[in-house]
Amino acid sequence: MTGLQDRLTPEQVEEFGREVDELRQRIVSDLGKEDVDYIQNMIRTQRALEVVGRGLLFAGFFPPAWIAGVGALSLSKILDNMEIGHNVMHGQYDWTRIPELSSQRFEWDTLAPAENWRHSHNYVHHTYTNVLDKDRDIGYGILRMDEGQKWHPYYLGNPVYATLLAIFFQWGVMLHDLEVEKVVKGERKVSELKDVRARILRKAGRQLGKDYLLFPLLTGPLAPLTFLGNATANLTRNLWAFAIIFCGHFPADVESFTEEETESETRGQWYLRQILGSANIEGGKLFHILSGNLSHQIEHHLFPDIPARRYPGIAGEVRAICEKYGLPYHTGPLRKQLASVAKKIVKLALPGGRTEPSPAPEPATVRRERELTAA
């Protein structure tokens, strides 16, 4: 837990917020055909991979064809979930007025209904990023991912719950909106969730019917192999999405906040919270695409409604702004971030378990003044 007010003076926060706003406006003013072409090419690529993957499963009796089919279908589901669905439903392409790119019309290839997800993710998570008791993505109502969460013997199973959540991640996201932990505590009534449940049942019925009934039956005697292929592709997508999302939100250096800290929050303070509460993952161009550019989680939390393909191009500028104001810019390779998340999950399973964040960097202006004084 950190003190937001202790990071910068009110004047610095205002200037910091102005610089981030200027960066945002420059990106928005530059949006155009290249952005549209990019996302439409991604959609075509995703659809082609799905057609190829499902086609190859019709030859699943031949092991190389089955493996290639599962690989293509896995990539298709990853692209649909990460680079297309997540970003389109954020409203990143609403400015185009193209129906298939409308955040309100898009439905993705996963169990969670788009309408439910837009509320829990776009509104709740991105408004209250890393605010304890407000941002339900902290632990997903299942895990203890922050020291501010009161320890209970239940959390001894933290590593087990995390493993199961990774394996069945699309199910976890689907059930997220039921707010089961609030129902158990008596904070919400089951009757209040009638519409949420109805959407879940409709979407789950269609999704499970497609992956585990329709397409397996279409392959006739190869139905068991097709069933297994679809399950493997879903598992691959689940593990990948879990890894990217948790590495962007829960490494040891990422900070959380109390409701009191965020009262009467200004635009600059909101930007500040996004930076302190996020982490990036380093990698190449293909890695960033397959992560939906959520490998640039800092930039995404700052600008969730700007096309994610823009994040790599502005990451250097965001990092320079952080350095100027002495703010941390959490980043590291996937293996480092995964190890940090895993260590955190294990430590917070125990009573008194604590994680030790790295010290915040010294502002560049202060460092120069100190060096000049020393000279």
TrEMBL record:
InterPro entries: FA_desaturase_dom, Fatty_acid_desaturase. CDD domains: Delta6-FADS-like. GO terms for cellular component: membrane. One of its GO terms (molecular function) is oxidoreductase activity, acting on paired donors, with oxidation of a pair of donors resulting in the reduction of molecular oxygen to two molecules of water. One of its GO terms (biological process) is lipid metabolic process. Residues 65-331 form the Fatty acid desaturase domain. Residues 365-375 have a biased composition (Basic and acidic residues). It comes from Amycolatopsis cihanbeyliensis. This is Fatty acid desaturase. Residues 351-375 are annotated as: Disordered.
